[in-house]
Amino acid sequence: MTIAQSTATLDNVRPTGFEPIIEAVDVVKTYDTGRVQVQALRGVNLTINRGEMVAIMGPSGCGKTTLLNCLSGLDEIDGGRISVEGVDLSTMSDDKKTEHRARRMGFVFQFYNLLPVLSAVENVELPLLVSGISAKDARRQAMDALEVVHLTDWATHKPAELSGGQRQRVTIARALVNNPAIVWGDEPTGDLDSTNAAEIMQLLVDLNQRQNQTFVLVTHDPGIAQRTRRIIRMQDGQIISDEPVGDGQTASAAPAAQTQSEAV
Ligand code: ADP
Ligand code: MG
Question: How much is the mean pLDDT over the chain?
């Protein structure tokens, strides 16, 4: 199936106004470790529309991180097609993909840690400085992003002087600072206690609703997943279910909070 065909199929079943922002068709990813080949993605088909908030769940090793890496263009695929904002990733050079990520995407990934020698605001403004924005504008935008995550008073503190929850909020501010179209989170609340996790999740839900940004969040926490609008479950490199979260769940704190305390 081509991307054009899959879009046509979706257009038949979804009301107009849904604009696909991420499309994956028959995506295959194999890691060749020399002696063994690991089939990390075994034919993934997925369409995510602009403004959606999606949770990806599944057991460890099922391919969640690989999927995020491939969809965001951080990693190459071995089969199938991926298009993001209407552009087929295979037609983009590495430089173009890097530039596209810097401009249009935000990442809350565990490997993408804060730099310990920089203050909170310096960490947040770094991606802007790298993409050529003036120091003055970068500082202003970084302070705005820190305000969104309620860290204005902590802007000059280094990561070691912040709590785990505060550090996580700095990484979220950094992911959001360029006003990205897509925010990728790989266990964005993974290191947090349930109170902090719920607060961060509320922040992401608010941003999703206010700014129509698209969020794709890997999580093992059912309480977090319930706060999104759609849950995709993976197993052995494939999507095994893809279901909307019941109406009202995202707006109502009570059921999510309950599930979360059970989950933690
Ligand atoms: P998840 O994020 O769901 O835990 P991953 O996407 O990290 O799963 O991994 C999927 C599969 O691919 C696992 O079997 C894992 O061991 C393998 N894998 C992931 N990254 C690599 C890599 N760089 N080299 C070899 N195998 C890998
Ligand atoms: Mg992972």
Answer: 86
Q: Does domain 50-64+93-263 have CATH number 3.30.1130.10?
A: no
Say if ligand 1 is within 6 A of residue 63 CB: yes
Cβ–ligand 1 contact at 174 (below 6 Å): no
pLDDT for residue 151: 95
Q: Give dist(CA 79, CA 56) in Å, integer.
A: 21
Ranges of each domain in the chain: 50-64+93-263
125 burial via Cβ count (<10 Å: 0-12, 13-18, 19+): buried
Start-end of H helices in the chain? 3-13, 64-71, 94-104, 120-130, 135-148, 164-176, 194-211, 222-226, 253-263
Instruction: Please tell me the pTM assigned to this model.
Output: 0.84
Tokens 């920089």 map to which residue? 118
Which pairing describes strands 214-218 and 182-186: parallel, antiparallel, or unpaired? parallel
* Number of helical H runs and strand E runs in the chain: 9, 10
pLDDT in tens, 159-197: 999 988 899 899 999 999 989 999 999 998 887 788 888
Q: Is the CB of 34 under 6 A from ligand 1?
A: no
Ligand 1 centroid distance, CA of 243 (Å): 24
Amino acid at 236: D
